[in-house]
Amino acid sequence: MAGRRAGLHTLVGAYVLDAMSQPDRAAFEQHLHGCEPCREEVRGLRETSARLSTAVAVAPRPELRQQTLQATARLRQLPPEVGGEAAGPPARSWLSRMGMPGWLTGTGRNSWLVRLAAAGAAVVIAAAVLIGVNVRSMQTRISALQQRDSAITAILSAPDEATVTADIKTGGKATVMMSHHAGALVFFAKGLISLPDTKGYELWLLGPAGKRSVGMLPPVRGDMTGPMLVRNLQPGDHLGVTVEPAGGSGQPTSAPIVMLSLDA
Amino acid sequence: MDIPGPQPSGSWQHQRSEPDTLEYLLTEVAKGNQGAFGAVYDQVAPAVLGTVLRVIRDPAQSEEVMQEVLLEVWRTAARFDPRAGTAVAWIMTVAHRRAIDRIRSQQRASERELRAATASIAYDEVSDAVEASLERERVRRCLAGLTDLQRESVTLAYYGGYTYREVAELLGVAVGTVKTRMRDGLIRLRDCLGVE
Questions:
Q1: Which of B79, B123, B189 has its CB closest to that of A81?
Q2: Is A255 helix (H, G, I), strand (E, B) or coil?
Q3: Residue A175: which H helix or E strand, with range?
Q4: What is the mean pLDDT of residues A119-141?
Q5: ipTM, 2 decimals?
Q6: Least CB-CB distance to B89: which of A24, A50, A58?
Q7: Quick check: B64 and A126 in contact, CB under 8 A?
């Protein structure tokens, strides 16, 4: 592929305009990571695209202001980041300081996936804010999601991170990103068919250490399902997915629709 | 009107830590200052909503996303790093990305358009502020200075929410051409607007 680098660099415009599919974005962010001039160009072009935003301003309905301001009382703010990461390149720090790691995506190669994980937290926040009920349990869920997100980030940035994908028999593709060092993996699926309410997809670790359920996938909404964090990997484990009753089963009751080998 | 003293022309993005700049307000928001958050809302909510509305079309969803974006600003204000760009670029990047995520997660565009077509909330352009209409005019003029292909590539992507591959398909030109036009279109726009 001649001129691959040059080809990537011209994507700066598409990147700033968010005109990329997620895999393209991930590839470009990997390129950005090692390209200081690109990050500088991204910075300038973002200032430019922001002007495209200010040029189309419309007046929100007045009641939205009060509603939004009131919602802040129910939403805990993130503390500033202290020490440590200050040495990161500017484009990265700008974006990764968002707290929800990669929510906005910085330059991490898997940040689009992390963003997906973080979307869980965002949805909960939006729900808490807009419904305004049961704030304490929402806070608990948010912090659980944030813990999960940082665990996912740790796997995706592990030096031994490895990715395997496999076709799902009933349609779609399963992907596992794992770190043997961390003994954990992130699972997600694209294009899963949605199941009736009475059924669900259950994830299993299968190997010399026995069959262990690692939980149900959330119901299929949109193209992407997951990500799901799976810990406590044992040597020789495979990851399998079966269709089970919605509440889950103690043992797989049907043939796996996909099986992934987790060998290094 | 209060004129805060001489300002170097075209350098609005460098006015940091002045009392009512977004950058200063964000440092206050980070400390939990609700009044400052109200001022941030007033400054950016119209542009956030306008952007999101362009992309999503459906007013109810757009309002929801606008509120999410503002609350995200509240939540993460302490993480804003002025060395890496202006506050307005930061917030608009959040807003646009979030609008894009919303439409891409809704697989079927037809569904979206149907909802938009039946929606009944009407918005006015923000016309009360003189700067707002000046800004609109300036951007319009600079957009007009692009080639047709540059302008269409940039606006279909930014306002239309299309990927560069989709834009290539829509315009019937090569993917590589669209990538290039998006970049050089933005660069020309940047130079025309005097962005540093």
A1: B79
A2: coil
A3: strand A173-179
A4: 50
A5: 0.84
A6: A50
A7: yes
